Amino acid sequence: MPKAFTPKVVTANALLEGDVIYLGADDTWVRDLADAEIITDEAIAQMRLLDAQSRASEAVGVYLADMAPTDSGPEPTHFREAFRATGPSNYSHGKQERA
Amino acid sequence: MYSYTDFDAAFVAERNRQFRAQVERRIAGNLTEDEFKPLRLMNGLYLQLHAYMLRVAIPYGTLNGAQMDTLALLAEKWDKGYGHFTTRQNIQYNWPELRDIPDMLDALAEVQMHAIQTSGNTIRNVTADHFAGATADEVADPRPVAELLRQWSTDHPEFQFLPRKFKIAVTGAEQDRAVIKAHDIGIQVVEKDGKIGYRVLVGGGLGRTPMIGKEIASFVPQQELLPYVEAVVSVWNLLGRRDNKYKARIKITVHEHGIEDIRARVDARFEETRKAFDGTDLAIFDEIKAQFAAPAFRNAPEDDFTAAYDADPVFRAWADSNLSAHKAPGYAIAQISLKAHGATPGDATAEQMRVMAQLARDFGHDELRITHEQNVVLPHVHKSDLPQVHKILKAHGLATANIGKISDIIACPGMDYCALATARSIPIAQEIATRFDELKIENDIGELKIKISGCINACGHHHVGHIGILGLDRAGVENYQITLGGDATETAAIGERTGPGFPAEGVVPAIERIVETYMKERTSPEETFLQTFRRTGMAPFKTALYGEEAGKKARAA
Fold first, then answer.
1. How many domains does chain B have?
2. How confident is the model at residue A99, as a pLDDT?
3. How large is the ipTM?
């Protein structure tokens, strides 16, 4: 059996602020992971990634990040994505500042 | 201190103007990220985990009050009110926005600072002993030659696309406070037959493959230094492994070819490079040197110092751990710890920066230094002023008395900020410092240097920490390897791994067991951690960490 596809979100950093951004289902960039589109199909994920990569004047370093779908939205499966989604642990800066 | 010439000022202004236009073209969509990235890196601008990061050079760690005030201004106006001092005498801003970078660079230029070559495959900020020009034990102030090297390497056309980054450090003293043995080129000012010259080491470095630098020349005369260093970089520029990023640093080139082969190639190349130097560099060197003349030290009684030392135990503790011997009678070198227990190592708020700037102006001949250990130095303070200096520092959370102690930890930004990190460093440092402050045994432990890196690139110098901690990603969980016996000084050594790593919550207990073992094993309180480790070897520490069996195996090995 082929390995099950791990759901993904499209993520990057915003060109102007450098802030972590995610691709929403409506093609807008969103700042909150909870608002990101979670993609469960591999072919669709690749298409969404290519589309997002073409938006070079908005986003830098676009890639697909592994997520677990939950009732409250995508949840990171790796601690690096968890830090990206919240901010640093030594100060309440970044996304946690706005929360 | 060195002051920009018209040429320097025009060069920086022109570079800033170019970069402003490049930023505008990037934002307008006329440059792709692939085109823009090398340009922004040349100007110290990274894109990190949560934001851009601007790395500003503090050449050889020296700055004056006005420059420190501008660093504070940048922190306040375009960042989140603080800056992070690094292990290479730079300051990093963690939250600037792309549009603001050109204004930040212009503000820096007003006080003769910039971010050029703080990134990319170029010769980076030349670092030096942070006690330069103040310490009693130096042959000569290393900063004039560091400045000469900075001028030579800045925008050097042959060295803008090197196989990898290239780092140079200079010391003027036998006692190495600049970690010259862990640099691509380490330079030590030496004296022979009454003449100043330079001992040159090559091929040191930490990172994935740590190496201690090897001596390539025992004495290079002043007039030959630039052509000689140019020959070294030039040989590596051709020979360095561009096929593999992990084998590209000169330490690998030296390791693969052997120091004799490299020396022969450098000597051959030197015959070429020396012809291009007509003595202009010597004239420039003399002009630079004149600007580093020692300040006019004053003669005054030290009674105020003695009185405070005898009466105030808090001042006494600070004086005992944070002061070092100065070459001028009645003076001291005062270190300002940026390692308050539980705080982020190397961070200073804008307000603290301004306080330090004012202290430098009022009591320190308008000079400050940044150490590779992420602290700040007032290099020239008369002892009679120290009680007042200490009082002001205390009022601003800057009087932590822990220089060289277990809580004076080097920590890289780690995964809290860095895009390359594999684990966090800062919280580990915070927890260790907090724990040993609670235990109240810091002074009893004595000199013990902990250095933490959040990935194998080793910005936190973990290999040369008496205790080194390396954060890794083990199957999606933060895991920390511990090394013992590293040394960053003239007796440099790479630490030895204790064994399997520890989960984040296991690091503090492991450090406690290591420290308990040291205190049990040491022959007297005077025997430092490093001396004890060198005498006993790994065995007792292994037993303490992993049990009797592991210790026995270590003893047998």
1. 4
2. 65
3. 0.96
